[in-house]
User: Which sequence fits this backbone?
């Protein structure tokens, strides 16, 4: 689905993610270590590359990963970059709109997103996709740069008797003054770290969940959903002026990254 378009995801949207994960033609392999591969791909009319990760988790079942990616309470535990997140509302039991704010390493400004998220569990495969949209109650806010997710998606499948195969695809524009070459480079550096964090979080999730509302999983049980219903009209920009207005950020980020060792990698 296109940026700014709010609608219930269709089968073709999930099939698009599956093709991106499984078809490596047109991709450049940039990283191959310890069972994790990272590809990049240039996209017409933009300087920001799409990135793809494929890896396996030998002793984590697919539903653990799927639940970790969904559970908003557990995300506060394992996602060290998250500042805050809110469920804005849902279109139906498998499509919602939410707000996510994240910290960035100094001297970068923090970023935030308004995202439509869609998910599908076929039993054999689990899909989660998101893209940036607008919502009238969450305009750009002071202290954050509103970033854009063109497409971010996870595809989770079983691997072997007890393991999982994870595919991750993302194309994101952080906006601001960051040069595209730096965004592309840092993304390639952090992609394997994301996989490592997700693996550790997935391993620890079952024990954590036993102590934290073990039966609450609205992504499996729609009757547990508490987010209000929203309509497409809530997500239509009446005027671009307020949406695009940018405060004086006070920081020129173009010179950041001459020494990538300064980047906080949240090493474990």
Assistant:
């Amino acid at each position: 689905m296109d940026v700014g378009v709010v609608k219930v995801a269709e089968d073709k949207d999930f099939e698009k993610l599956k093709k991106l994960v499984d078809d490596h033609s047109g991709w450049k392999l940039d990283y191959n270590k310890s069972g994790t591969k990272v590809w990049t791909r240039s996209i017409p009319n933009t300087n920001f590359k799409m990135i793809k990760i494929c890896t396996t988790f030998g002793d984590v079942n697919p539903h653990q990963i799927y639940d970790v990616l969904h559970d908003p309470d557990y995300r506060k535990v394992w996602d060290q970059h998250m500042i805050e997140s809110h469920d804005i509302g849902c279109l139906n039991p498998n499509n919602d709109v939410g707000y996510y704010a994240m910290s960035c390493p100094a001297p970068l400004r923090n970023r935030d997103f308004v995202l439509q998220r869609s998910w599908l569990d076929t039993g054999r495969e689990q899909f989660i996709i998101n893209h940036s949209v607008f919502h009238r109650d969450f305009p750009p806010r002071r202290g954050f740069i509103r970033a854009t997710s063109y497409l971010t998606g996870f595809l989770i499948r079983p691997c072997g008797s007890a393991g999982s195969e994870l595919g991750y695809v993302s194309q994101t524009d952080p906006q601001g003054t960051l040069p595209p070459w730096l965004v592309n480079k840092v993304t390639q550096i952090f992609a394997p770290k994301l996989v490592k964090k997700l693996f550790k979080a997935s391993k620890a999730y079952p024990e954590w969940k036993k102590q934290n509302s073990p039966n609450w999983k609205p992504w499996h049980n729609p009757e547990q959903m508490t987010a209000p219903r929203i309509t497409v009209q809530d997500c239509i920009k009446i005027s671009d002026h307020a949406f695009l207005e940018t405060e004086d950020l006070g920081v020129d980020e173009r010179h950041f990254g001459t020494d990538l060792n300064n980047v906080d990698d949240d090493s474990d």
